[in-house]
Amino acid sequence: MPRPAPTHLAFVRLSEISRDAISRHMSDPRLAEHMPLLHGDWDRARCEAFISAKEACWDRDGLGHWAFMANGDYVGWGGFQKEGLDWDFGLVLRPQYFGLGIALTRKALAFARSDDRIPYVTFLLPPTRKHVRGLERLGASVVDTITYDGEIFMKYRLETGPGGAAS
């Protein structure tokens, strides 16, 4: 049975979320299936380092990753990170909220379309991700296969500037 759509989606800074909640989320073995760069235990120190690294993106680029909230509950994290010339979008949801991916992505893409710094967005998906139709329906298409930290990813691109794909 599909999960009903939440009435309120919000983006807040990762630093506002309990370190224990993020650590439990990132320690869930179901995440590792499609996150080849996810290794090791997520203790408080690793969580603090992760949040510091994501906050550094905000300091450096004026944009970064958020915690995603649905009706006040932490459902995951993601957002935009500058990778060379690209604004890469990532989304890591708690397994019980996987069904919110498209709604959260649409909300983030609406943000990107309103930001003149972001003429397009890229997405890196590991080859294990077989269900990509939602991303393709949004208008993204494969532009390359890349190796990142020794792992292979399919690189998708979605135009967000004037004349870009429809929301």
Task: Give the gist of this structure.
The chain is α+β, with helices and mostly antiparallel strands and 167 residues long.
Task: Describe, in plain words, how this protein is organized in 3D.
With 167 residues, the chain is of the alpha+beta class. The protein has helices at 19-27, 29-32, 44-61, 101-113, 133-137, and strands spanning 9-13, 65-70, 73-83, 86-93, 120-125, 141-148, 151-159. It has a single domain, classed as Aminopeptidase. The protein has 5 helices and 7 strands, in the order βαααβββαβαββ. β6 (141-148) and β7 form a beta hairpin.
Q: What is the number of helices?
A: 5
Report the strand count.
7
CA distance, first residue to last residue: 26 Å
Q: What is the CATH T-level topology? A: Aminopeptidase
Number of domains: 1
- Strand residue content: 25-35%
Radius of gyration: 15 Å
Helix content: 25-40%
Q: Output the structural class.
A: alpha+beta
Task: Tag the structure with descriptive keywords.
7 strands, alpha+beta, 167 residues, globular, Aminopeptidase, seven-stranded mixed β-sheet
Secondary-structure map:
Elements: E1 9-13, H1 19-27, H2 29-32, H3 44-61, E2 65-70, E3 73-83, E4 86-93, H4 101-113, E5 120-125, H5 133-137, E6 141-148, E7 151-159
